Each structure stands twice: as structure tokens, then as C-alpha cells.
């Protein structure tokens, strides 16, 4: 295959590719060319401004949607709806497409009746209405939220055919919220307060223990995402934001924060969300999400449809520890690696968008990406992960993903040794 | 009124305020307190993940919507739907709430039939399909788009009661697109190519002349906003992004780019979108949007409902020339100014979010904000603007806005000398 060996696509290499595009386009020009004809939508008035007080996508985008996997769970009230990563670009996930995972369905909370209580080892137990909370100083941060089980099906080999299903338990939005530190200081937390229990107002009463050090560091009690109120499936009207840590700690429909001197060992941190190793022991409290990346295009749900020539490869990379200064890409299953171009804001604990433009000669490809984070950590292969952790777990699989692209442009999820 | 005189709220001032919140909350605790009782949504299962492939806001947020003003235009197909700035926070505008302005309604474009043609003074006239365009390198940028007529009704005095209507012709999203420069270079633009005509595929065939210098600088041909496809009312499937310049140049449903040696003097740059002065002459080609700001809360649509005590004032500031390093706020109509706290990413030609936390003593307020941009430009008063430009224009009013807050917390749009 013919590759672009420059770190950033050179002017000459780019023009060589683009000329082919131009030629293709020019070849197709004819009397019936839509560029020359006056199309129907130029001959009629469209909808007025009174048509959509809250806008929705074009009907032509109906296939861009969250998808669940029916056989994955016993009931849709305790299941997952995956983000269509292959349909997106940039780093912001639109609210309507943010993956959702809940344990008792989407709680229908009335914000006027919702309360947040802080109690336990505090000087002043407090109860806040939503209006009370909006009198505290706010901050705005873009953070990625990844489920600990993202890519979990892949531990035992390539299972799911599409990045929506292998990597779609992640989203990235701008949160507006109150630093949790301010609320805890208001309640008065002394030196004996070492742990915090966060509880949701859903029927599952989702609970997780969080060390006080993290709670006082960068956690937020958030009420907005991407500018507007949290969506119901994301915890409306209030959720905990625990930057860089696994998604189920970001307790939704947040109603209670209890301060204690030790963890609570609840269900979601013992029976679930622990990592069973080969010897029968389990890793616990593996909160931080390791550096990871995935190529979103081309991928099984987004094959190459244009044939050989200039091709844009793109993907996402992230780390629970900081920023992503570098992503490598290989087209041949790891024989040769080249540095991708990262574009858009580089924010800590946020998705990063990378691109690699190349001139595809039409031969089969083995695509992989490898993230480096700001601590120097490098994303491992799945084989390296399995050597240490076995294949019993379903959590914290951040191994390198491989897509095999065939000569016809179709792609599938494969494992290579 | 008791003000917080610190540039950033001090720990002590904050705690004094927060304690009041705590006391208020504690006073309301009782057997019927929702924090103690088990609420209905904790006793039932919610919707499963199969309920909403594309998510929507909570029913409790039904009032958060774009609004039009029926008397403003003759027909809703050529009108405006304003962004509810008072309901939002952070800097990202969710796609469903981005203001819309069109001249012949929302064109219903089929992306498979859509073409972009580049012709005129070029070496190689080109026609691109959407798939062709997606083979070019992409960039991601957050930019604000402001209509030249934003705040236009205010030239002759306070008219509209709410920042949604006075300032709601602005939105701020992350665009993914191709640098326009790359497409023009592909077509081959020589030294005689001084101007570009951009044309939309709506029934109005919206057209604007753009100087080549700007076209080659930072313009994008965008196909995504906030990660997903452009919304129909924002030009689906393709729009021009002209950072920092007035919104009607960001041609939607982009179908044609013609290169020429002089401007075209079309309707939207002669009869409209020019600034009529007192002497009967008009300023033309006033593309760049000057630095501006508005307090979004409190405001007429968002009164203070919690009574005296800790109060969060917040708003937005922006400049077509760069970033906003500083915003000043006054609570007394300009007698005393204090620096607000800017929070969240500070990106060029993007909205900036500011906050000012203060302890309201319940007396009337005259709220104003004043933006400083990275070129040193300072937002003027409306009186200063009128002294130079008269009151004939409806465009480019970036004067300081005043909200009068009464003792009961209600607010209205006023003018002060």
C-alpha cells in the first residue's frame, strides 16, 4: 500500500490525492448533474421558524442513533445504549447520542421535589434544593465518561462488529457544576472523613464509595451538559462528575452524599465493577481509566465506499490521567507505525480527535491506533493485557483494537497475534 | 447593597453566603421533606435503553426552547428563532437550541443529491459530492455565530424584555470542516482571484461576497456541529464557517463558490446588512463582529427567585477579533465596576462564560457587563455607539445592556443615561 510518510500531510501529497477527487467529480458532470440543475429544495419554501422550538436532526440522518444489544442483558431497564462513534466527528458528543447505562431504567425526577442531602461525619448535615445549589459558584469542564465495561466483550477475542459496540460506552460533554469540595466544606468535613458514599435517586439506589481525596480534588456536582439541563438518562437534574474515573461512579439522579471513615463495600464495588483475575482473586477500586484509543473511520459500520485514493482515517483517544500528546497509527497490523495528527482542543480527561490522511492503493489493511498519555503511559496490546489480567474480567479493557479492511473497503473486527 | 469586593470570591465571603443557604435548607426540613421521604421515582422502574435511540430533554424542561417574535417579520419562513440564553450555562449551545434565521424557510436537502461547485476565476472548475469532501483533511474549532442584527431592536431604546430576544441571535458550537483554503487551492486560484461568492441551495439562493484574504485564512466548509451532522436549519449538509464575521456570511446549504475579481453587490450586502448612518450614507462590508457581552442571569426571563443572600450572576462575552481576557460587571449602573470571573475554555472567536458571585441585600440593582477583547477593544455604551452611528441602523449594536432588578427580584430591560 502507498502511505503518506509525513507526520503531517505534505502539500504535495495532499494535492496528489485531491486532484484525484477533482477528476472523479469532473468525470461525473453531465446535463443531469445536480450541481447544474435546480434542485427541488431550491424551488419551494421550507419550514418557518415556528416549526421546531427544539430542533431535531435531518430525516436523512435517521440511522445516526444509539443502539442496544438485545442479548447483552436480561432486561432493557438494566442495559446499555451505545454511542454511534463511527457517525461522529470532533470531540463533543451531542446530548441525544450520549451512551446510557442504567440499573433500573431512567428515573423520572421532578426537579422541584429533588433534594441533595450531605450527612454522616460532618459538622452540619445539609439538605439542598436545586435552587439552593444554583447559589454556589460554578465551573465548566469538558470531560469524557467511560463505562468500566467499555470493550469488555473483547477480553476473550473479537466479538462485536463495530466501534459503536466495542467502544461506544463513552461520551464527552461540557459539564457545568459546583465543585464538590465547596459543598463538603459547607457541611464541614473533618480529618476523620476519609470516604464519601454517593447515592442516586433511581430505583436501584446506585451507590459507590469515593475516597475523600478525589472528592476534594476535581469532582463536580453537575446540573448542565453541553449548555442545557442534564438529560434524564444522564441523571437529570443532578449527577456527580468524577473526572477520569469509571462511569458508574458518576452517580446519576444524585440525592445523598454520606461522609464516613471507610468504604461501604456496596454491590457495585464488590460483586460488580471489580476485576476477576486468573487466580480467583479480584482487583478492587480500579477507578482510573487507562489511556485508550479507537479508529472510528474506517471501521465495520463505516467501510470505505469511495475506492482507492485519498482516504481520511480518524479516531478518538483519551486518558483518565490527563491529555493525549500523541497517537500512533498503523495500516499493516503493527509493522509500521506513524504519528497521527491530533486536532481540536486538547483538554485533560477529555476525548481527543486524531486524523491520518493517506492514499489508499486498494489493498487490504490492518488498522490499529495506539494512544500515549501525558504521564508517558502507552496503550497496550490486548495480548499484553491478557498476560497480566487473564480473560475472566469484563472491565478495564484498554487494549489496542484492530480493524481488517478488505479490498472492497468493508471492515471487520479481528484479532492478530 | 452589600458587594463582594474581591476579584475572585474569597473563601470567607463564600462561606458567609453558603451558610445562609444551609440555614435556609435546614429550616425547611420536616417529615415531609423530599430528602427524607422515598420519592415515587425510587419506587418504580424507569424507561429502558430501547426507549430513546435519539434522546430528548426532560419533560420538566419543556419551557427551554427557541422562541420567535410574531410581529418581527411578515412570515415565519423569513424570520428568526432566538436561543434561550437565560436557560443555558457553559459555552456550548446544544444543537436543538441554536438560533435560526433563514430567508426562505429550512431547505430540505438530500445529501446524496447535494453538490458543491467551485468555478469562476479558477484553473480547474470542480464539483464535489459530500463523499468527495470527506476525503479532504478536516479541522475542529469552536466558534460563535452572531447575526449582524442581534440587539438590532435596541438601537432606538430598550425594546425587548429578555436576553433571549435582545441577544439570542448567537450560538456557539464545535464545527468539523475542511479548511476552505484547501478546496480553493485544489481548484487553483491565481492572483486575479480577489473575491469569492458563496451561494446557498435554499429558495432564497442566499449569496454573499467574501474577500479572498478571509477565505484563505480561517474559513471552513463544515459538515458537522457538536459532533453530529449539521442540523437542517443550520445548513445541512454543508455550510460555510466565517469565524468572527456576521452570521449571514456563513452561507447555509452551501452549493456554489465563485471566484471573481470584485464583489457582486448582491441584495444581502446592499439593501440589507449595511449600516445606514444619520447623514443618509451607509457603512458597507462591516463584516467583523465587535466585542460584546450580556448578563444572562439575572435577567427579565430569569428573575432572582430566592430572595436576598448569595447570588450568582452570569453571562456571556465574545469578540469576532479573538479571545476575551476580561469582563467587568456593575451592580449600580456603572458607578462601580468589578472584574468578573471567566470560567471554561477561552478560545478565539468563541463565547466566553463569566460569573460574578455576590451577596444581594435585596435592594434594587442596575446590572451591566462590559467585555474587553484580546486586541484591547472595550465594549462601548449604547450612547457612545449612537453618537457615531445614529439610530437608523438595525445592525452591529454591541452596546452595553442594562437590566434593572427590583426588590422583588424581577428584572426588566432599561436604558440609563
From TrEMBL, chains A, B:
Extract the PANTHER family matched here.
Answer: SULFITE OXIDASE, MITOCHONDRIAL, SULFITE REDUCTASE
Q: Which residues form the Oxidoreductase molybdopterin-binding domain?
A: 103-264
Keywords of the record = Metal-binding, Molybdenum, Oxidoreductase
Task: Name the CDD domains for this protein.
Answer: bact_SoxC_Moco
Moybdenum cofactor oxidoreductase dimerisation domain location is: 284-401
Q: Do you know which SUPFAM superfamilies this protein is assigned to?
A: E set domains, Oxidoreductase molybdopterin-binding domain
Class of this enzyme: oxidoreductase
Q: What is its EC number?
A: 1.8.2.1
**Reported cofactor(s):** Mo-molybdopterin
Q: What is this protein called?
A: Sulfite dehydrogenase
Q: Provide the GO MF annotations for this entry.
A: sulfite dehydrogenase activity
Protein's UniProt keywords contain Metal-binding: yes
Q: Does the keyword Metal-binding apply?
A: yes
Amino acid at each position: 500500500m502507498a502511505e503518506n510518510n509525513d507526520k503531517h500531510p505534505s502539500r504535495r501529497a495532499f494535492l496528489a490525492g485531491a486532484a484525484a477527487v477533482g477528476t472523479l467529480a469532473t468525470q461525473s458532470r453531465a446535463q443531469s448533474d445536480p450541481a447544474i440543475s435546480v434542485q427541488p429544495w431550491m424551488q419551494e419554501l421550507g419550514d418557518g421558524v415556528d416549526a421546531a422550538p427544539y430542533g431535531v436532526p435531518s430525516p436523512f440522518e435517521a440511522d445516526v442513533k444509539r443502539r442496544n444489544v438485545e442479548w447483552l442483558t436480561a432486561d432493557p431497564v438494566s442495559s446499555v445504549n451505545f454511542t454511534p462513534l463511527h457517525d461522529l466527528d470532533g470531540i463533543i458528543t451531542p446530548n441525544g447520542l450520549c451512551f446510557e447505562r442504567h440499573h433500573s431504567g431512567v428515573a423520572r425526577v421532578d426537579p422541584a421535589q429533588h433534594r441533595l442531602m450531605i450527612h454522616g461525619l460532618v459538622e452540619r448535615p445539609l439538605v439542598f434544593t436545586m435552587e439552593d445549589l444554583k447559589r454556589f459558584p460554578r465551573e465548566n469542564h469538558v470531560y469524557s465518561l467511560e463505562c468500566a465495561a467499555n470493550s469488555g466483550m473483547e477480553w476473550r477475542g473479537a466479538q462485536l462488529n463495530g466501534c459503536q459496540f466495542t467502544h461506544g460506552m463513552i461520551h464527552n460533554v461540557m459539564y457545568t457544576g459546583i465543585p464538590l469540595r465547596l459543598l463538603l466544606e459547607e457541611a464541614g468535613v473533618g480529618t476523620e472523613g476519609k470516604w464519601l458514599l454517593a447515592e442516586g435517586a433511581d430505583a436501584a439506589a446506585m451507590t459507590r464509595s469515593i475516597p475523600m481525596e478525589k472528592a476534594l480534588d476535581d469532582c463536580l456536582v453537575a446540573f448542565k451538559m453541553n449548555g442545557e439541563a442534564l438529560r434524564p438518562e444522564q441523571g437529570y437534574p443532578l449527577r456527580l462528575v468524577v473526572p477520569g474515573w469509571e462511569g458508574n461512579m458518576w452517580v446519576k439522579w444524585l440525592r445523598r452524599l454520606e461522609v464516613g471513615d471507610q468504604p461501604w463495600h456496596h454491590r457495585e464495588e464488590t460483586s460488580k465493577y471489580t476485576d476477576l483475575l486468573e487466580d480467583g482473586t479480584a482487583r478492587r477500586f480500579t477507578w482510573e481509566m487507562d489511556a485508550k484509543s479507537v479508529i472510528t473511520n474506517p471501521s465495520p459500520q463505516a467501510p470505505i465506499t469511495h475506492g482507492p485514493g485519498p482516504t481520511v482515517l480518524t479516531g478518538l483517544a483519551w486518558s483518565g490521567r490527563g491529555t493525549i500528546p500523541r497517537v500512533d497509527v498503523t495500516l499493516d497490523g503493527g509493522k509500521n507505525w506513524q504519528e497521527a495528527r491530533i486536532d481540536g482542543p486538547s483538554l485533560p480527561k477529555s476525548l481527543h480527535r486524531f486524523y491520518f490522511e493517506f492514499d489508499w492503493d486498494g489493498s487490504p489493511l490492518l488498522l490499529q491506533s495506539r494512544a500515549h498519555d501525558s504521564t508517558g503511559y502507552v496503550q497496550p496490546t490486548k495480548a499484553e493485557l491478557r498476560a497480566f489480567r487473564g480473560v475472566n474480567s469484563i472491565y478495564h479493557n484498554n487494549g489496542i483494537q484492530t480493524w481488517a479492511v478488505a479490498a472492497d473497503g468493508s471492515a471487520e473486527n479481528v484479532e492478530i497475534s
